[in-house]
Every structure is written in structure tokens, then in C-alpha cells.
């Protein structure tokens, strides 16, 4: 049975998160905040905490990712928008309308405070995660001195064919939910609130998570039919997350402590060519069995990988240029990533081929030490490169989580 959001929660306006009356109204939500992980796919996920939701949160089924360019030249307007975004995001994460009067409660002669397409839908585990791109730290808003060294532009990788119009951006918001309409509704309303201050640079819809971020989840498959991210960092790996995921005091700058760095890559797959490749070749490329997901030479998905194991022909069971060997932490000084990517299909290219692949998202403590060396090795040697092409790229600094309803996205940066 569907439940009307406004009747269910019955809370007052969140208002601007940093403003007094709005903060008091939103604090009621905080006091009744649900656990960090939703109990079911329809329940809410807590919006507040030490780290932003949507990073180690068990990966939801659907994604709407958007990159924005800031069009206002006024710092105060940008900060005000971020405060308004935070208030709206807190409401939507609880399954409420984006604004005070919602989709139908305002004056008939005024535009509604919410677009209305999520009326009657539960929260569906919605998480909203914000990030700041390198281009935000130019001379427009006085932020140049606060740009993290780890936010250095990614190098050019061999074989990539990046399209500038779907790469980069000043700000990004990652909306994940178990219902695609809930995720789209959240992004649509943030774009509406930001009208005149930001404009959408590019966006991406995703379905079918391709990574597990909790041991309670099974390993998902990508569009090539293989289990993806078997050895991904998990919510339960507290020590590894501290070492590999979260920016620590002293990493610099201070405003990023407790945050993480997000890398996005849109990776188009040559689906039709891949589908004609023999099964044995497909398995050699990945270094895994396609059915069980076991490393070649092993029986089960989570069996330890033996890179020295040999097949009956005396050759290495896992080739030197197999994907799992080149991506494995032992090939990069122990560097790990927390992946939470999604499949995508964007129709066809007009030549009878699917425009489909993987929208890769990875979080880490420092891209220079993690994503960059891993991807450089893959770009140079990976057998999989014959079947894929990187067409979009993004890098964003995701600040720490929000303390309470008096906090707002970017407070640590703009303070």
C-alpha cells in the first residue's frame, strides 16, 4: 500500500538549514533519524552523520547522477543555494516533499514547492551525495587557497576518448534509490531550486548496481555478464575504510577531513563485439569464471586468488594482462577503491549498436595514490581494452557528513 509522504511524516518546513526557524523544524527529523542503513528498500536512510550517505551505504538499485556548472558570480548566492539544497535534500531523504508547501499545498497562483512526481512514494532508501569539482576552485568565489592537492586534474590515460560536454563540472550530486522515480525526483528538484545559480552540465541514469558495498549484498553483474567488484571495499571493513576511503586529519585541507574523493568514468562497452567472443576468451580477459565468478584455477567466487597457479597447459591460469591481476591491490602497493557503479543503456548510436556500458563511480582517500596508478596500469595493459572505451570523466571532492540540521553542504569549505 502506498502512503502519502506528507501525511506519513507530518513535519513542518525545513527551511534554509542554517537559518534559525528552519533549523528547528528540521531538527525534529534528526531526532527521529533512522539507522544509517535502511531496514528495507522502501525505508529512509539517515541524512546526518560523520560521513555523507551514499558512499558506504549499501548500494541501491538505481542512480541519477548530475554535474552542474555554477552560473552565478556571487559567493553569497552560491552559499544560499547550498543551504536550500541541504534543507530540501534532508526532507526528500525522509520521503517528504522538497519544499514547505509541497506539490499541492501552496497558493494556486504560485509555482509549487515540489514537482510532485514522487507523491505517494516511500523514501526508497534515497541518498544524496554532493561533490565539488576542481573548476570550482578558480578565482570566482575565493576558494583557490582551499583547493585540495588531491583534487589535481586526472592525467590523460592511453586509449580514452573523453567528450568534454559530458565530463567535469563545478558541482555534482549523486542520487541513489531503489525506485528510479525517487532518484529522478530528487535531482529534478535540486535543479529547480538552483535555477539561475547553476545549470546542468551533464547527467547520467543508471540501473542495476555493479558493485556490492556491504557483505549483506550479493555480487552484481555488469553488462558483459561477469560479476563485478568481488573484492570491493565493504561497509563492514572499518579499518580498511579508515585507511583507504576517508580523508584523515593532516591529509589536508582541514575542510575535507572525514570526506572522500569521487572519480566517475563513463565506460562504453562494445557490446556486439563482446557478444561474439568465445566464452574461454571472455574468461581469460577477466581472469574469472563467468558463472560462479571464481578466479581461474579456483572453485568459488571468494576463494583467494593465486596469481601463480598454472593450468593444465603449464601456462598461468590468470594471464599477466588479465583484468583482475592488473586491478588487484597487490599490483598497486595495496591501493583499494570503494566502487559503486551502475549499468547504463542510452539507446542506440544510430548504427544499430547499443550505447551501453558501465557508469563507474569510485571513492578513495587520494586519487593520486589510488585511482590514477590503477587506471594507468589498466589503460596500458588490460586485455579488456579491446571491448571498452572511456568517454566521460569526473573528479569531485566530497566533504564530510552533516552534523545536524544547522549544518549545510559545503559549510566546512565556505566557512
UniProtKB/TrEMBL annotation:
Tell me what organism the protein belongs to: Sphaerisporangium krabiense
One term under GO cellular component: cell envelope
Cofactor(s) needed, names only, are:
heme b
**What is the organism lineage in this UniProt record?**
Bacteria, Bacillati, Actinomycetota, Actinomycetes, Streptosporangiales
Q: What does this protein do?
A: Involved in the recovery of exogenous heme iron. Extracts iron from heme while preserving the protoporphyrin ring intact.
Q: What InterPro entries does the record tag this protein with?
A: Dimeric_a/b-barrel (IPR011008), Dyp_perox_C (IPR048328), Dyp_perox_N (IPR048327), Dyp_peroxidase (IPR006314), EfeB/EfeN (IPR006313), TAT_signal (IPR006311)
Q: What is this protein called?
A: Deferrochelatase
Which E.C. number(s) belong to this protein?
A: 1.11.1.-
**Dyp-type peroxidase N-terminal domain location, by residue?**
52-207
Under the heading PROSITE patterns, the entry gives: DYP_PEROXIDASE, TAT
| Family that this chain belongs to | Belongs to the DyP-type peroxidase family.
The record's GO molecular-function terms, alphabetically, read: ferrochelatase activity; heme binding; metal ion binding; peroxidase activity
Q: What top-tier enzyme class does this entry carry?
A: oxidoreductase
Q: How is the cofactor bound?
A: Binds 1 heme b (iron(II)-protoporphyrin IX) group non-covalently per subunit.
Amino acid at each position: 500500500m502506498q502512503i502519502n509522504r506528507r501525511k506519513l511524516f507530518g513535519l513542518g518546513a525545513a527551511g534554509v538549514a542554517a537559518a534559525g526557524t528552519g533549523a528547528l523544524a528540521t531538527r525534529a527529523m534528526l531526532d527521529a533519524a533512522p539507522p544509517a542503513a535502511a531496514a528495507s528498500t522502501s525505508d529512509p536512510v539517515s541524512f546526518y552523520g560523520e560521513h555523507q550517505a551514499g558512499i558506504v551505504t549499501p548500494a541501491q538499485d538505481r542512480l541519477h547522477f548530475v554535474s552542474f556548472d555554477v552560473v552565478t558570480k556571487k559567493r553569497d548566492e552560491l552559499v544560499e543555494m547550498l543551504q536550500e539544497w541541504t534543507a530540501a535534500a534532508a526532507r526528500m531523504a525522509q520521503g517528504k516533499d522538497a519544499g514547505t508547501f509541497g506539490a499541492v499545498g501552496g497558493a494556486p497562483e504560485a509555482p509549487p514547492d515540489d514537482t510532485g512526481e514522487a507523491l505517494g512514494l516511500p523514501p526508497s532508501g534515497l541518498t544524496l551525495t554532493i561533490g565539488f569539482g576542481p573548476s570550482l576552485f578558480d578565482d570566482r568565489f575565493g576558494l583557490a587557497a582551499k583547493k585540495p592537492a588531491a583534487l589535481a586534474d586526472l592525467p590523460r590515460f592511453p586509449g580514452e576518448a573523453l567528450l568534454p560536454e559530458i565530463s567535469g563540472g563545478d558541482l555534482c550530486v549523486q542520487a541513489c534509490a531503489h525506485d528510479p522515480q525517487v532518484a529522478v525526483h530528487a535531482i529534478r528538484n535540486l535543479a529547480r531550486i538552483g535555477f539561475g545559480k547553476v545549470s546542468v552540465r551533464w547527467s547520467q541514469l543508471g540501473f542495476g548496481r555493479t558493485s556490492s558495498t556491504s557483505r549483506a549484498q550479493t555480487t552484481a553483474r555488469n553488462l558483459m555478464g561477469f560479476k563485478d567488484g568481488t573484492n570491493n571495499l565493504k561497509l563492514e571493513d572499518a579499518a580498511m575504510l579508515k585507511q583507504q576511503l576517508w580523508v584523515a586529519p593532516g591529509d589536508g585541507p582541514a575542510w575535507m577531513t572525514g570526506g572522500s574523493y569521487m572519480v566517475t568514468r563513463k565506460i562504453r562497452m562494445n557490446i556486439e563485439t563482446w557478444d561474439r567472443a568465445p566464452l574461454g576468451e571472455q574468461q581469460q580477459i577477466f581472469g574469472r569464471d563467468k558463472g560462479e565468478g571464481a578466479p581461474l584455477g579456483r572453485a568459488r567466487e571468494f576463494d583467494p586468488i593465486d596469481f601463480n597457479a598454472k593450468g593444465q597447459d603449464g601456462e598461468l591460469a590468470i594471464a599477466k594482462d588479465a583484468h583482475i591481476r592488473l586491478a588487484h591491490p597487490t599490483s598497486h602497493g595495496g591501493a583499494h577503491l570503494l566502487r559503486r557503479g551502475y549499468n547504463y543503456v542510452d539507446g542506440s548510436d544510430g548504427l544499430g549498436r547499443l550505447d551501453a556500458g558501465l557508469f563507474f563511480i569510485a571513492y578513495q582517500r587520494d586519487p593520486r595514490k589510488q585511482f590514477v596508478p590503477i587506471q594507468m596500469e589498466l589503460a596500458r595493459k588490460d586485455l579488456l581494452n579491446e571491448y571498452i572505451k572511456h568517454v566521460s570523466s569526473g573528479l569531485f571532492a566530497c566533504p564530510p557528513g552533516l552534523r545536524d540540521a544547522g549544518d549545510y553542504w559545503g559549510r566546512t569549505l565556505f566557512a
